From TrEMBL:
This is Biotin transporter. It is a multi-pass membrane protein. Keywords: Cell membrane, Membrane, Transmembrane, Transmembrane helix, Transport. Belongs to the BioY family. InterPro entries: BioY. It comes from Terrabacter ginsenosidimutans. Residues 1-20 are annotated as: Disordered. Signal peptide: none annotated.
Amino acid sequence: MTDNTPVRSAARPVPSMTSAGGVDAQSVALVAVFTALLVAAAVVPGIPLGGLGVPITLQTLAVMLTGLVLGPLRGGLAVLLYLLLGFVGLPVFSRGQSGLQVLSGPTAGYLVSFLVAAVVVGLAAQVTVRRARRSLWVAFLLVASFAATVAVVHVLGVLGLMVNLRLSLSAAVSADLPFLPGDLVKDVVAVVAAVAVHRAFPDVLARPRAGARAGSRT
């Protein structure tokens, strides 16, 4: 008796978690490395500014660099892992702080903004590196970083000051403004470093999909 069931080609690509979700050894390693970078940036002693308990640190530089290099998914995961490590009790926040109680302090809005900012600049980096000419990378990423710094980091930071310290809008903005020039300078450093990484390692954000490569052979 003959079996007339069509035989499928063994060469047909089978979807995998690696190609579909981007979960591979390289991604895990990069997330771990940049999480460690975020921790290291927080460990460096901050410079006190004003009397509200919000120091100048290298954290915003590390956050922007993480998003710009890793993109929205892996960059967001690195920042999320960093935040979770702090929330469960490891002293990875500025001045050795840890625990959920930081969410009731003056830095709460800034901490929350780190995750959002990393995703925003990560999306900008992903689109820029994959679609724009290399000569435009710095300009595009600077605009994205400046916008994320002002509209995400500082807006959420001001909201955190208003909610947790019961400050008026004008008082919270006045307390936040001294941090802005330094953060914009950090953006420039982060963008220059990220562009250098993408030029040296063009596959970090522009890797061809494994499924697409396999499908082209069938």
